[in-house]
Amino acid sequence: MKLLTLEEWCDLKYKAHKPTLQTLQRWARAGKIYPAAEKHGRQYRVRPDAIYLNPTDIHVGKKIKESQSAEPAKNAFMQKVINDTASRQV
């Protein structure tokens, strides 16, 4: 998966009233972006599906759960079914 710079991620997530680069860097350092931003040299990089989390928001857990895709789990299960390696409980 290609990681985006904070500016590229900001362009994807915010159409108007975009946060400044300094604000984005502050969010990355404080861990307010999920999944966490990675620092590569002098730049932070994030996944395209990353979201901003306000730690004072009471719905933080719900936002994290909604941001996680169930596709990897579904694909792993389908591989087990196709390969007939799923455990059989009767």
From TrEMBL:
GO molecular function, one term: DNA binding
Source superkingdom: Bacteria
Keyword Heme set for record: no
One Pfam family per UniProt: Exc
Keywords associated with the record: DNA recombination, DNA-binding
Span of domain Excisionase-like: 4-57
Name recorded for this polypeptide: Excisionase
Gene source species: Rouxiella aceris
